[in-house]
Amino acid sequence: MADVKKVVLAYSGGLDTSVILKWLQDTYACEVVTFTADLGQGEEVEPARAKAQALGVKEIYIDDLREEFVRDFVFPMFRANTVYEGEYLLGTSIARPLIAKRLIEIANETGADAISHGATGKGNDQVRFELGAYALKPGVKVIAPWREWDLLSREKLMDYAEKHAIPIERHGKKKSPYSMDANLLHISYEGGVLEDTWTEHEEDMWRWTVSPEKAPDAATYIELSYRNGDIVAIDGKELSPAQVLTELNRIGGANGIGRLDIVENRYVGMKSRGCYETPGGTIMLKAHRAIESITLDREVAHLKDELMPKYASLVYNGYWWSPERLMLQRMIDASQATVNGVVRLKLYKGNVIVVGRKSDDSLFDANIATFEEDGGAYDQQDAAGFIKLNALRMRIAAGKGRSPL
Predict the structure, then answer these.
(1) How confident is the model over 237-286, as pLDDT tens digits?
(2) Annotated binding residue at 160?
(3) pTM over 0.90, yes/no
(4) CATH for 6-163, among 3.40.1010.20, 3.30.1490.190, 3.40.50.620, 1.10.10.10?
(5) Which residues are catalytic?
(6) Is 134 known as a binding-site position?
(7) Is the CATH code 3.40.720.10 the one for domain 179-296+339-358?
(8) Is residue 121 part of an annotated ligand binding site?
């Protein structure tokens, strides 16, 4: 412990990380640098400065990372149409590599020899933070207090805070019964009644979305403009990446879009139930697949679909900075050169319905696809040879007595 002189702590200003800050000072007798990230979680981050100053912190970083988060992490992930285990849009997972990156950048700037985080020893986030940190700075020391201390309950944390005069309120606003994480892509809920997989989630838990039952009776139509696989405008108005996601969250939330209740397989081995609100991301996924449907070659689209589960697992398990994810990203990005155009969507009571798509790079040819006369654009007699050639191996096998009947 004595060889740690300065540590950069991912600091929210809440109970856990405020206790961690003091614990690091006492246990490691080291200087602590705090880093607070604004990823669009919807809460004030500036109060963390005063709390850190009250605990004697001299180097305090509070960074607005919203644009970088969406531009360099969320958008690249959505170019791959990324979904984990068929449903989860990876809202928590995709924020961790950016936090790890910034922790290492600050460690380099301040000469720190260690980083620290508040992730528990049961979850995925410890893996994500630390894999990212080691990939970017191999020799960095990582301090994970939840794997070292004996403060394993909220009451013990509160007692520690009271004993050391850490400014945390015991009373006041009612604390949510859920463990929550929020950023511009989503908000997640775990714990509480959700630990019983048969119990329905509570309606008053949701923060961003109205219930589909209470969504407007009239549908909302929007048009999303794409350039190289990314949304660059909504209804013709050009917006930055963070502005795009903010606006889609607003529109989607108002229409009851993006609620999810799943049981997922954590990388550390256990199953975990989580509820998620991802209104903007739900719209983005549907729209991106729609614009790709007319601009991507069939085999390119199918290859992307085959590789996506691997890509999703890499993101979920914390391998954003791995060579294999970077290799996949280069291939995915190359496929997006022609993913340009406009998608029109109908949003109605929790549903995202594609009603139109157009592109100058479209591969859809109405002259060939038509059910009417095509003027010789497609010779239907060609299909006979195509079918026979594709049936050849099955015909040979059946001729050898290997018929499936």
Answers:
(1) 999 999 999 999 999 999 999 999 999 999 999 999 999 999 999 999 99
(2) no
(3) yes
(4) 3.40.50.620
(5) 16, 96, 125, 179
(6) no
(7) no
(8) no
